[in-house]
Amino acid sequence: MLFQPSQAKPFHCRLSPKHQQGVVIVVALFIVALVATMAYGMMTRLERDTRRTSLILRDTQAEFYAQGSIIWALDQLRSNWEKQKPNQVVDPLPIRSPVIDVNGYKITSTIYDMQGRFNLNNLVNTDAQADFKRLLQTVDPKLSEEKRQQIVKGIVDWITPGQQHNEFNQFYLELAAPYRAAHRPFFSISELRLVKGVTPALFNALQPYITALPVATLVNIQTAPAPVLMTLSPTLTLDTARAIEQVRARTPIVTAQQFIELDIVKNHHIAADKITVKSGYFLIETTVAIEKQQALLYTLVERTAKDNKAKMTLLWQSKGEW
Known about the structure:
By secondary structure, the protein is of the alpha+beta class. It has helices at 17-82, 126-139, 145-159, 167-173, 200-206, 226-229, 238-250, 256-260; strands spanning 95-96, 100-102, 105-113, 118-119, 210-211, 219-220, 275-276, 281-290, 293-306, 309-319. Keywords: Cell inner membrane, Cell membrane, Membrane, Protein transport, Transmembrane, Transmembrane helix, Transport.
């Protein structure tokens, strides 16, 4: 007798209409949540991109306005030279432009005399090295003579070509973020931060009194602040330097010889070949502000003269710092 295996009947599970509606609602809610999340992400990204584009456009517009203010400064320096009068100071610096408001942008420029500061690239000269040590002592009296000498040696090494293998380069290469000395003149005073022995505090103390110019320069005694005046002679004290500032505020000093013959100066034996009353290098600081956004542009310019005609040359520009 043959037995046929019984065939299992398929199992069918039917959801009730209420259960089917519940599944549809869950799926619909999931899709809505997914679409909402994607839409939020897209809107956030669009808002961010729009804001970034707005900032870029504002920065571009601010730089455009800044260049216009620099033209004002160049014209001012050119005019000062070509319209100079006897027994008067050529450049009564600093010169500040009036605040100009253009389409919501507030623009202003200030011209500073860079020959009223100590030129770091003068340190190739031995006499200038002694002068700079006095400036170091003025801004940081706690700095030892040994430390001052070490810093000066580090700067001289930095600006001297060809010295690739020495104690300074070895020091720089062993730092956590190694680098090499430039072995060329300073292009910017910010490079001084990299020199062995120069701390952030010391750099900040020096910053108002130093510059980095492409050639060796004289100190303009008409615009130099007291700490820079003190570099001109080892016997010149801070009180004397401040007294000189008061004298020149009352009476313009229009020649180097006039300065040397001042009663408060003549006993300090300041060399005439260290000083001048006319400058050729200037820094233009331009600020453009709109709402909470601000752009800062530094421009170094050189003024040369021939036949009483001034020629202005833009040497470099830097955003944010120089």
